[in-house]
Design brief:
about 475 residues, alpha/beta, 7-stranded mixed β-sheet, about 40% helix, about 15% strand, disordered N terminus
Length: about 475
């Protein structure tokens, strides 16, 4: 039976293309294809399996970060250049994960290599003093992202932690609000309700925070994304105690979930009304959303922004910053901020290179390439009447296995995870690597070409044909 679909208006700064019609996919067909694809996976990746056995004897799960693991074992990469990876078996894979944006300029980008090599041979790697290199990058970020003051850190987790501490010091309040399902790194307060089980979090209209046993979270209120009613209720009841609202302007750990038109502006107004510091987590959006990030692209300026991944050219660099009156808590000692490696000359060299490379023109060209690929995938979805749609922001894109818009975590949990797993594994088996898990999302770096993206499109076409065979 063919289903006729309606529409929901997304923020005009984002891209979401819904199919006009769709038909269900045969579940038996999906299961049969999955079984065949997993068998195929183990046929070409034996070296990764062997390496995983070795790694598991020294590293929990055999990986350095738990998201890298999947059963029966993940692909182990030995080298990378440009948009391509080489695994321990010698297989070449097109990298469309690109470190969630950390490799926006491509692997071993020659400009980054040149700047970092100069730091290694002529400048030094660590001074633990003020340096012209750090000041230069701070001024670059100040101009690009519209920040009054900023500080460097070494990870997104650190930047989010210090942004919350700055908000608490500024407001003299303790509680925070976060979005249900959202991921913001490892800080305890932000580990609440990160992809929780639906059985543990109550009704959609009144979410119950889910706190892992190992977490000491403090007071955290959880609300649904794109739900202004929930935000208004929490602020009306608890606003006097809330220091900050932490939100990804576009959610990028649930595939890609875009804001409704007007949503972020209304969030900004609500925070202003109650004296709550609005924190945009742009660790994943950052430069991947455009020249100056999602805030400027979508036209809503938060009080504080956190950055990481795309700004460092593959080296560990992050930052937090924003309004002067809030960042002054560091100046007058209301909040202490320390870090031996903060702003070290090695990562500052990489950041200078990234700032030079990521021009308006370069990022626009990559975004246009991404949109061309999504247009082609849209046509495949339409011709096969698949229950799926594309979503994009800047140089990132995804196929969401739902014929209706995904506007929040509950909608995400209602998508077809069987098809999502098959889509991801189908690509891996054909030499296209996207992030592991059921929230597949690709990134078009400055090193990708239209020929590279044609591989993604052709693989998706073959999948569509297999599903309808």
């Amino acid at each position: 039976m063919t289903q006729t679909l309606g529409t929901t208006t997304a923020d005009p700064g984002t891209r979401r293309k819904l199919p006009e019609t769709s038909r269900p996919v045969d579940r038996n067909r999906v299961e049969a294809l999955l079984a065949a694809e997993w068998e195929r996976f183990t046929s070409w990746s034996q070296g990764s399996g062997t390496h995983h056995e070795r790694a598991s004897r020294s590293l929990p799960l055999g990986v350095t970060s738990s998201f890298q693991h999947w059963d029966p074992y993940p692909i182990s990469i030995s080298s990378a250049r440009g948009a391509w990876l080489t695994d321990v078996d010698g297989n070449r894979l097109l990298d469309l994960s690109m470190g969630f944006g950390a490799m926006l300029v491509g692997h071993l980008n020659p400009v980054v290599v040149e700047h970092v090599t100069r730091a290694l041979t002529d400048t030094g790697t660590l001074f633990v003093t003020p340096s012209p290199q750090a000041t230069d990058v701070a001024e670059r970020f100040q101009r690009r992202f519209g920040l009054d003051l900023l500080r460097f850190t070494n990870s997104g987790t650190e930047s989010l932690m210090y942004a919350i501490r700055a908000a608490r010091a500024y407001t003299r309040r303790k509680a925070i609000i976060k979005i249900e399902g959202g991921y913001h790194g490892g800080y305890d307060a932000l580990q609440v309700s990160v992809k929780p089980d639906l059985a543990d979090i109550g009704p959609a209209e009144a979410p119950i925070p889910e706190v892992p046993f190992d977490v000491e979270a403090g007071t955290v209120h959880v609300i649904g994304y794109n739900d202004l009613g929930q935000l208004d209720r929490v602020l009306a009841e608890h606003g006097r105690d809330i220091a900050a609202l932490v939100i990804e302007p576009v959610i990028e750990n649930l595939s890609i979930v875009v804001p409704d038109e007007g949503y972020l502006a209304a969030v900004r107004a609500a925070c202003d009304e109650h004296g709550v510091v609005l924190v945009f987590d742009e660790v994943k959006t950052g430069l991947t959303a455009g020249y100056a990030g999602a805030a400027q692209r979508l036209g809503v300026q938060p009080d504080l922004i956190t950055l990481a991944k795309s700004i460092g050219g593959g080296l560990p660099l992050a930052a937090f910053g924003g309004r002067r009156e809030i960042m002054e808590v560091v100046v007058d000692g209301r909040m202490a901020h320390f870090g031996t490696y903060n702003g070290n000359p090695l990562v500052m060299a990489a950041a200078q290179a990234v700032d030079e490379i990521c021009t308006h023109e370069a990022l626009a060209a990559a975004e246009t390439m991404n949109n061309r690929a999504m247009d082609a995938i849209d046509a495949i979805i339409a011709s096969h009447e698949l229950p799926a749609h594309t979503v994009g922001l800047g140089v990132k894109g995804c196929v969401t296995w739902s014929s209706t818009p995904v506007r929040n975590y509950r909608d995400y949990k209602a998508t077809d995870f069987g098809l999502a797993e098959l889509s991801w594994l189908w690509g891996v088996n054909r030499g296209v690597l996207t992030p592991p898990g059921l929230d597949e999302q690709w990134l078009v770096s400055l090193a990708h070409t239209d020929e590279d993206m044609a591989i993604l499109v052709d693989d998706f076409r073959q999948l569509a044909e297999a599903l309808r065979a």
